[in-house]
Every structure is written in C-alpha cells, then in structure tokens.
Amino acid sequence: MSAPAQKQSPVVAGGLELGLASVLDLEGEGVALTGAGGAVGSADGVELRVSGGDALSYNAGRKGVSGVIGFDGALQFAKGGQKVVVSALSFDIASGSITGTVGDTVIEIATLVEPHRAEVVKEPDSPRVRVIFGQDGLVLSSGLPTALDAALGSGLAEAAGGDEFEGKVDVAVNVIHGDTVDTALATALGLGDLDLDLDTSLGLDVGLS
C-alpha cells in the first residue's frame, strides 16, 4: 500500500523572536546586538519576519506537520571594530532546531525546549490559524557563542550553552479557503474535531509528533 501523498500549505505570515539578551552576557562582554536586513532589534533581542515561499507539509489523515521555515534579515553582533553577521536563519519543524549562517558556516543557534509541541490559535474573522512553536522556551546551543567568541574575542561561551531563554516561531497558514475547511490540514494541526468557523481563539496546546 502506497503512502498518502504529502500536501503543503503556504506560510502566509509570521516570524521569529529571539530573546538573546537574557541568555548571553552581551553587555558584560561589550557586545552590541542589532537587527540587519529588515530584522528589528529590541531590548530583549531581535525579531525577524518569515520569508516568502515556505510551507507546512502534512499528510492527509495524519497528525503532524513538517517543513523548514526561513526568515528575512540577520543578527549583527559588534565589539570594537569587529562585526559578526548571522544570516539565513531558518527553523526545522521536525528537529526543532533554529540555525543561521556565519560566513560559509552553518551554526545552530537554539532548539525548542519541547520540539514536538505547538500552540494553535484560530484568528477571529480570518481563514488563518497561527501555529506557535517555542511557547515553553528555547535552549541556547553552543554554536552561536562559540562563533561570536572566535570572531570578536569575547567570552560569551564561558557562561552560555544549554541555558533556556524566551523566543518563539510563529507561522500563519490558511485553514479555510472560501467556504471550505482544509480538513487534512486541520487534522494535521490537531483541529480535526473542532468547528473552525467559530469566531474565537482556540489557543490549543497540541502535540505534532
């Protein structure tokens, strides 16, 4: 018996939030973090918007989604006259890993505390649902502070790696098209038994493995 054909639902909005200021001693090491290329810096870290062209993949009749979501913009770290840019950030749903590129090298920035769970929220008066990964937090990987120390001469890796911090991946997809509910996508997101036409926020915490 052949496997069900895989379906895809385009990601229509969303973004990535990384509260790196709470887990890296940037101020103590004299390192400034800003957003670049459209990313927005804040007191807590950086926010990036999803890139166009990505999608959630799923199988009809099965719970769970997969896919790699890319983000526009970059993280820029600077100390003295030295600068490091982390670009091409992406999130792999299956592994729960957030990665980026420094030069030609791919580094892991963080992983989800709960990699196979998400909060699914139905937007009122909208065909969209938001799928929020990382509501339990993120875990800092050693790749980022190690790369920063090598380029900037900082000591960030000495007190980082394995620590949890706030951040999330938030993506929106259309689960209703006209008057028709995409039942396969609803099932994949754990919404198969719910009335998606309700004008309400569902806010469901679901397992997607």
Share of residues in strands = over 45%
Q: Shape, please?
A: elongated
* CA(first)-CA(last) distance: 22 Å
Nearest-integer average pLDDT:
88
Separate helix tally: 2
Give helix and strand order, one letter per element, not per position: EEEEEEEEEEEEEHEEEEHE
Main beta sheet:
8 strands, antiparallel
Low-confidence segments, given as residue ranges, are 198-202
What is the total tally of β strands? 18
Indicate the structural class: mainly beta
- Rg from Cα: 18 Å
Helical content stands at under 10%
Task: Please describe the structure with a list of short key phrases separated by commas or semicolons.
2 helices; mainly beta
Note down, in words, how this protein is organized.
This protein is mainly β and 209 residues long. The protein has a domain at 6-114 and 136-170. Helices cover 8% and strands 46% of the residues. The protein contains 2 helices and 18 strands. The chain has helices at 143-152, 183-188; strands spanning 6-18, 32-36, 40-41, 46-49, 55-59, 68-70, 74-79, 82-92, 97-102, 105-112, 117-122, 128-133, 138-140, 164-165, 167-174, 176-177, 180-181, 204-207. Strands 1, 3, 4, 5, 11, 12, 15 and 18 form an 8-stranded antiparallel beta sheet that branches. A hairpin with a 2-residue loop joins strand 7 (74-79) and strand 8 (82-92). The radius of gyration is 18 Å and the shape is elongated. The model is unreliable at 198-202 (pLDDT under 50).
